[in-house]
Every structure is written in structure tokens, then in C-alpha cells.
Amino acid sequence: MKNVIEVKNLTKKYGSLEAVKNISFEVQQGEIFGLLGENGAGKTTTLEMIEGLRKPTSGQINVLGKDAYRELNQIKEKIGVQLQSSAYFDDLKLREILELFGSFYRMSLYPSSLLKMVNLQDKANSTIKNLSGGQRQRFSIVAALVNDPQIVFLDEPTTGLDPIARRNLWDIIAKIKKQGKTIILTTHYMEEAENLCDRVAIMDKGEIVAIDKPHKLVESLDNPFKVEFVLQENNPALLENIMRLCNARECDIKTLPGKTAHYEIKLQSQQSLNSALDLVQKEKPESIKVGSATLEDAFIGLTGKSIQDEENGNG
Amino acid sequence: MGKLLWANLKMLFRGRQALFWALFFPVMFTVIFGFFFGNQNSNLGTIGFVNQSDSEIAQNLDKTLSESKILELKKEDNLDVAKAMLKKNEIGAIIQIPKDFGKNTPSSSKEIILISDPSNTQTNLGIQGFLQNFTTQLNFQLQNAKPIYSVKVESTADPRLNYFDFVLVGILGLALMNSSVQGIAITMAKYREDKILKRITTTPLKSWKFVIAQVLSRLVVNILQITIILLIGVYGFNAHVHNLGTIIPLALLGGVLFQSIGFAIASASKTTDAAQGLSVVATIPMMFLAGVFFPTDLLPKWLANIVQYLPLAPLLRMIRQAGLESASILTNPKNMIIVVAWIIVALTISMLRFRLSDE
Question: Choosing among B203, B208, B217, which should be mutated to test the A contact, i.e. which has the most A CBs within 10 A?
Fold first, then answer.
């Protein structure tokens, strides 16, 4: 696969604060590449340096074979950018905004076909303020496609959307990928990255701590198997039994917050999973869920925290 | 850039609030000042005339006043009735000619009495002058003398000029200032807050094209403002404005001046609210001090000395010189120098600090 973006030793400093620390990665043609991390991890700064909006303190960025600093204008013709929570002109109709942005490029697509792609053809003559949150986000994505770009940058495209609107947007992003475009997106929804991204880079405090296919990241965890169960009441004896059974080192057992007697065990092997299941079954649990670890588990394993912690202000 | 210019114009005309400030506000000012001070032709209004004498001289005065175009005469026999009318402001003053005035008897009255309301300064001065003149002529005639010395009045301005003409140019400048400073400052700050400017920098559009399209679209609004204000002033209220060929380019120079100030304000303010506040701080003092409604000569000298350098003041002086006094704008090149200096200062601040993106 050809690399369409190459980032080498990229660093961005704001005074003494190092927002991005010497990161390197490549994005391959036609893939959906995800930058994952909590707020402030450096995702947006990285993205905006590649887009030419911010000047790197040091390092090289190469986009479509061109230097992102010296040949920025040629790059701009071939990329489409959706910014995090950016607005468009209040007093222009959707069709007019797309026509206007199209006029900034040498080549542009028809507004009608663009709007049709995101199911907004009926809103061609509406203004932004008459759209719902999901519709706005769909519009802001399609506005990044006016120049039929080879690479599309989406900065937290689904933040703040309800689950249905989010899934709706995933379909659109998948559709863009099918057209052969490369997509690089940032998100802090693990489920989103797991569902959409061919590869993800996990960022923490300005550094890339891991970069791989989502399932590979999950498989590389120490304890990739997972059992989650709810008992009638707390049962420390059972937990001790399970611990003894699978040699503490090989399993990670914890009481989940919220519901009473809600537990999660992460295990190293299929064998210890089976033994643990036997023990739990004997206690007649109210519910039991068996599965593999998720990208979120991988994220927690790699960064030592969950994104939820961060959002609750505990991180 | 044509599409961008067209889109800007559409937005300017769809943004009703901004359009209100740009057009209806100055139109309202023009109409209100027009009703108060327009259509004047230096008319002194209606004057009560109580003639109690039947002498030839009294009849002559009656005839001269009646034929005069500078005032309207309301004849009344009873002085008390006339005084009551004066109190009710139905007339501006009373000219009373006492009984026997002008008769050649020793006891006859020698004075014409002017009863006036001290608040009607303009009327009082006009009528006093008129009566003084009349009595002087009369004195000469009776003494068979001819006047040797006299005063010849020459004016640099159109003698028909009145306060409305002065204030009309003021309103023109005010409209240009308010719509351009606030329009640019608030719009640009909002575009930045909404990340529209940042979004535009991700496209190949050159920033200078974006700025030029903004300026040009607003100059179209400026032309509309100038046209509407002058049309209403001249055709609705008989304003005397000349040299449109000079004052329209001058007004557009003013548009550029205030837009540059708008860009400078936008570059200095972090939020839309800050931009709004700063524009008000910049424009309100000029609105009242820089000669929109009152000549700056009326200010204390130290204040007038400062005020003459504010951007609006030299612009108004130039437009008044060209439009009202039919003088060349180069009569006083200082005005042009101040305006150009302000444009350079504002543009320098904008170029140093105004960025479409964060960096």
C-alpha cells in the first residue's frame, strides 16, 4: 500500500508545553486511520499540523508526496477538512455554501450530488440554523468533499451526537471510504474507532503509545478474554477462589461501579476462562456475559486510564 | 473571487439587523433632522404684527413686511391677543407699532417695539436686523442723507446653507462609520469564533482575496447608504449639496478608512462580544465629538484640538468643504493627510495581527 501521509519526528511546543512529542506515523492510501486519545492528548494539534493550519516546531510532514509546509497550496487542492465544531455562514443556504466553497478550488463537485450523498437534498435551500445537530454534522462532512479530495480529515465527527445520528454518520464515512478516499479521523469513542478504523494510533500526553489495527491492539493485551457477571449479593469468597484458580498474574478481577455485585474478570487464556466460568455458574449469577476485551480495554491498558474518567473530570 | 463577492452581498442583505444599522438608522436620522431643520430657506417663521398707527411710515413698514419672503406676517389688532399667541408659540415674535408712530408731532412715539421670546434666537436676530435696517433707512431719508459706509457680506459657502445641510453630511459620515466599523469588526470576530476563518484557510483561497471581497461588498452597501441619504436630504428636505463627483469618492474613502479600523478592532479582540464593545468605544465618542451634529468649533479649544485628529472629523471637514462650500479638498491638505494616516495605522495593525487562522 502506498503512503499518502508520512509524519516524521513531529513536535509542537507552546512555550514550555509540549503538545506533540516527536511522533512518527504513516497513513496508507484508501484506509480509515484513527487518532485516539483523551481531550488534550494532542490529536487535533497533530491533525491541524498535517492540514497546514499550525506550524510544527520541528519534524517533517509529507502529504501526497508533497512537503506540507512548502507545497501547502497544492496539497490544499487535494484534501478536504472538517474542523472540530466549526460553523458555516448563517445567512447562506446549504447549496450556496457548497457553491462558494467549491469556487475556492480548481475543481469542484455539484452541490446537488453532494447533498444527495448525505441525504440532505431536501435541505438545499435551508440555512444551517434550520438543521438538527446530526444534519449539521452531515453537512459539515460533505462540505469537506466539495473538491473531491483524495484525503479527508474529520476531527471528532460524531462528538455530541445521539447514537442514531452517530451510526448514520458511520455509514456516510464508510461510503466515503468506498469512493477510494483516505480518511484520517480523531475520536474519543472507542466503539467508533473499533467499528470504522482500519488502523488506529493511540495518543497520550502528546505521544503515540501504540499504533496498529484495532483487533491487533486488543489481542496484544495480557488478558484478552473477559467475563462480566452480576450476582445476587457480594461474594468475596468466590472472587478469592477465582484468583487462586488462575494465578493472580493471569487474571484481573474487579468490582464494577454502579450496580451491586457487578464483577468483571479479564483472563489470559481460554483454559482459565473455562474454569472461571464453571465457578461463576455454580453461584447462579443473575446475568453473565462472556467475550473478548475491547479497544477500550486496550486503551486503558496502554494509557492507564479510561476516557470516561477523563470526561468525568477524574483523569 | 466573484462568487465570494456575490455571496458576501447576499449575506449583507439577508442579515437584517446589520442592514437596519446600515440603512434604516441613518435614513431615520435624516428624516427626523429634515422635519426639524430641512426646507428652511432661512425663513424666520410667523411674526405677529400689531399696527396701531395709521401713518404713512407705518403703512410702508406693513407693506415691506408683508411682501418680504423671509417671514410670514400675522396681523392682529389687539396686543394682548398677540401676546397670548406668542406665549402659545403660535408666532415667533411681535412687532408693535405704537399709536401715532411716524406722525410728525413732538409727542408721537419714535420707537417700534419688538416683543420676543428669548428662546427664538434666530428669529429675534433676523427681525432685529431687519427693523434696524428699516429705521436706519428711515433716518437717512428724513435727514436727506446718503449712506457712505456699508458692509458687504461675502460668504465662502452657499448663502442658502443651513443647519440641515451641515447635519446631513454629518449623518452620512456617521452611517459610514457605524456600519463599516461595527460591520467588519463584529463579522470578522464572529467568523473567527465560529472557526469560519479557519475553515477558509484549509482551502486554497488566498487571504487577500477574502479581505478584498469583504471590503468591496461593503463598499457596495456604502454607495447605497450615500445615495439614499443624499436623495432623501436633497429631494425630501431641500438640502444644498454639490460636487457629488467629489463627495462620493470621499465618502468611499471614508468607507475604506472605517473598514480598516474595523479589521484592526477585530484583530485586537478575542471574542465577538469584545469586538462589539470595542467598536462602540471607538465610535460613540466620534459620533458626538467629531462634528456629526455640532460644529467642533463649539467645543473647548483643548478638546477641539484633540478631536480634529479623530478619523471622522477630517473626513467630515473634507466632505463639507467639497459638498457645501464647493471648495477643493486640497484647500486644507491636512484633512487628507490625517485620513490617509489613519488608514495606514489601522491597516498596519490589521496586517500584523489579523490572521484567518490561529497561527
Answer: B203
